[in-house]
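RECORD TYPE: protein structure
NAME: Terminase
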Amino acid sequence: MIDHAAAAGDLFGETGPNAPKAAGQRTGEGSVPFSLLKKIRGKSQAIRAIQFLGLLCVPEGKKAGKPLKLADFQRKFVKGALAKKVMVGVLSIGRGNAKTALSAGLALAELVGALEEQPQPKREIILAARNRDQARTAFNFLLGYIQGLPDADQGQFIVRRGSKLEVEFAGNGGGLARVIAADGKSILGGAPTLAIMDERAAWEREKGDNLENAILSGLGKRDGRALIISTSAPDDANTFSRWLDDPPPGTYVQEHRPPFGLPADDLESLLIANPGAKEGIGAAPEWLVSQAQRAIARGGSALSSFRNLNRNERVSTEDRSVLVTVDEWMSAEVSPDDLPEREGPCILGVDLGGSRSMSAAAFYWPETGRLEALGTFPATPSLADRGASDGVSDRYCQMQERGELSVLGEATVPPGPWLAQIVQHLDGITPDCIVGDRFRHAEFTEAMQAAGLARVPFIWRGFGWKDGSEDIERFRRGLFDGEVKVAPSMLLRFAFSDAITLVDPAGNHKLAKARSLGRIDAAAATVLAVAQGARMKAAPARKARALWL
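PREDICTED:
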């Protein structure tokens, strides 16, 4: 193997006994045969890839130097991603399950022309990541596999480590593998036969999408394939999440994500996200459980990061300005059978939506801590179309099936009929007060009159720094003290996952969206209702006045 910097000025490396001696050799004419190709007998690309990978040696780790043995989930992905009529293979799995090592092995198979009996000449392989340092990981795995080959085979590779990270193969028609960073220029004009997009969920949105589009458009020139691999993205709007949730035709998807809402140290679900742990790949099950317990003890960003990276859950790792973390909110969820009764005064928190947006209501009983929430969208566009445009797939349709989301009106939700419909949810209970946004004063007044609630006291609150900071603090205190109990609600889970707080220099908080398409209306209504409940509980009880006769 010849290793040198491209900056030295020699495009094909220094001459040597195993270096290509003529241009004809670089297209496969008279070049030294690659010995491993003689041992591959498969017909399909998937079978040939599995056979080729079995001839390699593990390049690093506790099994370094031993023959590479594919785990069941790896074999499944190779068969699916390299099946006929599949152009893109997508793999989502927890950190440390050798997904980068697997894709690097497939890159080497394509580089030497092992995937087809009659491979294309001058094959081009792209190793793309968010930046050069991340892409170097796959590049180093590729070099590690090459260094484990027989000496005669190593001599057909030229490695460049200068301004460009590249590996060139001289035999079997020739090939070139190169590293591309998503934070640099695009590769318009390229024609890759295989592209690997590593840790796609971590790419910057605009630059990453531009690079992905350039790669995919280039694949069509030579019937190439793309492998998109990553741990789970932090939200549904991420491009990697959309590959998983709404894959286009010709896409194979393999996602190892456990059900939402389980304890972080639940072993069975940990093994769903980390299938390699059972087969000696990556972390052992005992280590995963111990790290989960450590993350639970530390809480905050440590727990969010563990869920996202090790449990492969779609959980935001932002912790500095989130309203509450996923685990903090889930501490309030109880089974429907354990939900407290509707006893005592009821507070109705309302976030009245504008045109095309959601209107949400939260019902809170301070004496028992019971919380319920409902949301409503206008009928146009449909919930399915709205979910697609918001980047959340069929989430809104699922909420409607669960009875948490309804449809009312055409282009907008009419405030009066909507408020009347919401109050019907209480089955005859009249709320003691309604809490809403001061900015929508006129609309609320008209809506309450239309709904027959003109006699119910209305408490005006602002969403700015003054009222907002107080309401957020009272809500958080009530949640952390166990004074909020709610049945599992998809509407509330995703509302709080999109809710962050903006902080001014004095440390005051106000509610905001984590992303422009986020829907935090139910979270806003909940904050209003719970905060008002805390004020009512803290208010001193009025003593009866003595009557003088």
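COMMENT: The longest helix spans residues 521-538.
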